[in-house]
Amino acid sequence: MKNLITFLKGTSLCLAFMIFFFNSANAQNQLEDAIKQLSADNVSGYMQPFLNGFSANMNSGFSGTANIENKFTIRIDAIGMATMIGSAEEMYNATPPQPFAQQTVRTATVFGDQGAVVQGPEGLSYKFQNGQLDMDYFPLVAPQLTIGNFYNTQLIFRFFTYSSDSDVPDIDMLGFGLRHGLNQYFSELPLDLAAGAFFQTFKMGEIIDTKFFSINGLASKEFSILTLYGGVQYEYSNMNVNYTLSGASADEDSEVDLSFSSDNHIRAIAGLNLNLGVVHLRTDFNLGNVSVLSASIGFGI
Amino acid sequence: MNNKRKFLLGLLTTLLFTAACDDMIRDNLVMLDAVTTFVYSIDTGDNNYSETERVNLQSVIDDIDGDVEDVSFYNITMRVSNIYDSSPETSFSGQLTARQSGTSHNQPLVNFTNLKFEDFFTERSIFSDDIAGISVVSEGISTLVNYYQQKPAPVVEFTVSGTVNRAGGEERVVFDFEVRLYTQVATDP
Fold first, then answer.
1. Are B90 and B165 in contact (CB under 8 A)?
2. Chain A touched by B19 (CB under 8 Å)
3. Domains and CATH numbers, chain A
4. pLDDT tens column, A81-105
C-alpha cells in the first residue's frame, strides 16, 4: 500500500506537469490571459478544439474489463490519454471588433500559430489572438481509484487538486463513477457485460469550468492473463468560461459567461488488458468524432 | 514484481508523460486589449466648449503584465453618456485633438459637424461610415500611432472643443462626452 501511495503521488505530480503547460516560465497564466481578450462571439471557436480533445481524453480509460464479480477489489491506476491535433483543429472563423468589416476571418485557435491580421481604415490593423499551445497530440494523465465489488458494482474515483498563492491557477479535478456487472441477469453468456456511468468536473483558475458525463456498455472476454474488451459510449461535455472581457466596448456587456459543448457524443471502444497479478496494464483505442488512444498502469487486486 | 520494480515503473511512466509536456507552449505573443476612457464633463452657458484630458500612454503600457513588445491602437469611439436636462436633439460640432505634452501643436484626430446627442447615446467609432458629419484626419491618426511607438510613450493631451447648437430652450447645455481609445498590446508572457 505504501508503494501505491508513492505511485499515486507520482502520477498526481505528472498531472500537475501536464496541466502547468498552460503557464509560462514566469508563472503567468498564458491561456487565461489569451482567453480574456476574446469576445463572446469568438471564444467558443478559439477553445472548441481544446474542449473536444480535453473531453475526449477525460472520458477515456475508465476500465479494461466487464468482469465485475462479487469480490473485494481495490486498484490505483495512472491513466494516460492522447488525442491527435490536426490542421483542422488549428483554425476557426472569427469576427473582428469594430470598426473593422464584420466579416468572418480564418484565424488561429488555441492550437494554431499566428492570429490573422485584418486591415481597417486609415491603415489601422487588428491582430487576432495567437495560438498558445503547440501540440501534435493532446495528452493527459489522471489518477484513478477503483473500489468494489459489492452487488456486482464498483465505484471509480478520480481526484486531483492544486492550490497555491502564486499566479498559477488553482486546479480542482473530481470524478466519480459507478460500474455494474450484468452477467448475473443472464445465463451462460460467452462474454462478460457491464454498464457504467461517470461524472467528472475540472475547474482551472477563475475562468474555466468543465463538466463531463458519460455512460457506456462494455463487453469483455478473458484468455488467461489477457482480456479483450470493447464497447460503446455516449458522452456529453460542457465548458463554461466566465471572465471580464478586456477590450469591451461601452455598449457591450464586458462580463462573458458562456457555455459550449464538445463535438464528441458517441464512441466505440476496443482494447486489451493484461493482468499480471497486482499489476494491470491496459490500452484501448476509442473511435469517435475525436479519436483517443488510452493506456494505463494499475496496481491492486 | 517486487516493490522496487513497481516504483521504477511508476517513475518511468511519470517521466515519459512529463517529457511529453516539453515544448507544448508556443513562443507566440499574447495579444492583450486595453481601453483608455476619458470623460469630458461639458457645461456651457454659451455656444462654445473646450475640455482637455491628459493620458500618460506609458503608464497605460506599464499597467500591462508581461514584457510589452508592441502597442498599437485600432479604434477611437465617441459617446454622449449623459445629457442631464439638455435636449436630445441638441447637436454639437467641433474636433478632437491630440497634443504631446510639452509641445504646442494640437493635431486634429477627427472633425465633426452637427452631431445630435441622441445619435451618440450608443458608442460610435469615428471610423464608422454610418453617421454623416464625421471626418477623420489621417495625419492625426498617424501622429497618434507614432506616439505609441515612442519609448517611453509620451503624455498626451486629448482636447475636445467646438460649439453646441441648442434644440431646446435650456439656458445651459450640460453633457458628458466620452472618448474611448482601444489599444492592442503584444506581450511576451
1. yes
2. no
3. 2-300 (2.40.128)
4. 999 998 999 999 999 998 899 999 9
ipTM at complex level: 0.82
Q: Do B75 and A299 touch (CB under 8 A)?
A: no
Res B129: pLDDT = 84
What is the least distance, in Å, from the CA of B127 to any CA of chain A? 6
Higher pLDDT, A197 or B151: A197
Helix A2-19 vs helix B3-21: crossing angle, to nearest 10: 0
pTM, 2 dp: 0.85
Average confidence score pLDDT of chain A: 88
User: What's the gap in Å between the CA of B80 and the closest CA on chain A?
Assistant: 11
Q: Where are the domains of chain B?
A: 28-188
Which amino acid, residue A31? Answer: L
Q: Does B24 touch chain A (CB under 8 A)?
A: yes
Residues 6+ apart with CB under 8 A from A98: A249, B75, B77, B125, B128
Alpha carbon of residue A270 to chain centroid: 19
pLDDT of residue B11: 57
Chain B residue numbers with beta carbons less than 8 Å from the beta carbon of A101 are none
Q: What is the pLDDT of residues B92-125, one digit of tens each?
A: 999 999 999 989 889 999 999 999 999 999 999 9
Q: How far is A122 from chain B (nearest CA, A)?
A: 6
User: In this predicted model, what pLDDT tens digit does every residue of A177-201 receive, in sequence order?
Assistant: 999 999 999 988 999 999 999 999 9
Mutate one of A39, A83, A124, A136 to test the B interface: name it (highest B CB count within 10 A).
A124
B28-188 fold: Jelly Rolls (2.60.120)
C-alpha dist (Å) from residue A6 to A63, A91, A245, B165, B169: 22, 41, 42, 79, 82
Select from B147, B58, B66, B184 the least CA-distant residue to A246: B184
Q: Which three cell numbers stand for residue A108?
A: 488561429
The Cα–Cα gap between A82 and A229 comes to: 19
